[in-house]
Design a protein that fits this description.
Elements lengths: L3 E4 L6 H10 L3 E3 L2 E3 L4 E4 L10 H13 L3 E3 L3 H9 L15 H14 L3 H12 L4 E3 L4 E3 L5 H10 L8 H8 L4 H12 L5 E2 H4 L8 E2 L14 H4 L6 H5 L23 E3 L15 E3 L4 H4 L3 E4 L3 E4 L1
Parallel strand pairs: 1-4, 4-5, 7-10, 10-11
Antiparallel strand pairs: 1-12, 2-3, 6-7, 8-9, 12-13
Length: 305
């Protein structure tokens, strides 16, 4: 892994991306950032939340196409692609009727407003990116490494992990629920629905929650704070010492500490840079909250903008 620089979710922060690349020793050669010894790895979520979405896409695309980087798509790219997927039966863009998605994509779409041709090119390029990267020494997937789902996807795509145009069409038509679930799990991760009033009646809570889980953990007799991402949830944080009910154990995909490392984005971690498990490496370190982009290399450690 020493020859790779793993860069966290960009979310439209191109200025910070250029700063990280420059601090790591990348320079622009033939229109793309290049390093004599390192190759960048982007873990998805290039867009949304920031104000430099198009520039982020241009930088990442140039690096990937020049062979200077690898990249997988994240849940925000999935949303972006689904938003532009036309239903061939109705002629409608179904997802454009979702107010939440319109708000989420507003800045990104505004940046593309003067370039319909580039938008089409960028959509096609995003569809050419894999959902998973597998190497001899590590794997990369945006949010969740589920061996069974990944094995099925590997077989379906002949090892490329790249979906074809017909795959996107079938998901738009609702004709392939298995693929839809696979894509959602790998790029959005796994959340569980907690009715805290029912599950923890003594805690005097009435809220309902759907927190992301630390899917790689063995949840047996572990507390909420050890198995869920609840840092931003004041209600759940207050009962974090309680144990997760056994009914939710099946949601987890325990990842043995002896397996090769998996690199994720997605989880927007602040605070300590220590990885939550030795072979689960999360490089999304909350640029959308802190304005600071971080990247990691086994030898160089953490580099920040």
């Amino acid at each position: 892994m020493n020859e790779y620089l793993f860069i966290g979710d960009l979310h439209g922060h191109a200025t910070q991306l250029k700063s990280v690349l420059q601090k790591a020793g990348f320079t622009i050669v033939n229109g793309a950032y290049w390093h004599p010894e390192l190759k960048a790895v982007f873990v998805g979520d290039f867009i949304n939340r920031g104000n430099e979405n198009l520039e982020c896409l241009r930088i990442v695309r140039a690096m990937v196409e020049s062979g200077n980087a690898l990249a997988v798509i994240g849940n925000h790219e999935v949303i972006f692609l689904n938003y532009h997927q036309q239903n061939p039966q109705t002629g409608q863009y179904t997802m454009q009727n979702r107010a939440g998605w319109n708000r989420l994509l507003q800045q990104t779409m505004q940046e593309f407003s003067q370039s319909a041709a580039e938008l089409k090119e960028m959509l096609n390029w995003l569809k050419s990116l894999p959902i998973v990267i597998e190497t001899k020494h590590f794997n990369v997937v945006h949010a969740c490494y589920d061996p069974e789902l990944i094995e099925a996807l590997r077989d379906r795509t002949n090892g490329s992990f790249v979906l074809q145009e017909n795959d996107w069409l079938q998901m738009e038509l609702g004709a392939d629920e298995t693929l839809t679930e696979t894509l959602h799990t790998l790029t959005f991760g796994i959340s569980i629905y907690l009715d805290t009033a029912q599950l923890f009646p003594g805690a005097n809570l009435s809220s309902q929650h759907a927190p992301r889980i630390r899917y790689w953990e063995d949840p047996f007799e572990k507390s909420l704070v050890e198995t869920l991402f609840i840092e931003d949830d004041k209600h759940l944080s207050s009962i974090g010492f309680l144990s997760l009910p056994e009914a939710f154990y099946s949601s987890f995909r325990p990842y043995d500490e002896y397996e090769k490392p998996v690199v994720h984005g997605h989880y927007c971690l602040e605070g300590t840079l220590k990885n939550l498990q030795e072979n689960i490496i999360i490089v999304d370190r909350a640029v959308i909250k802190t304005g600071i982009l971080k990247a990691w290399n086994p030898q160089l450690g953490w580099i920040q903008s």
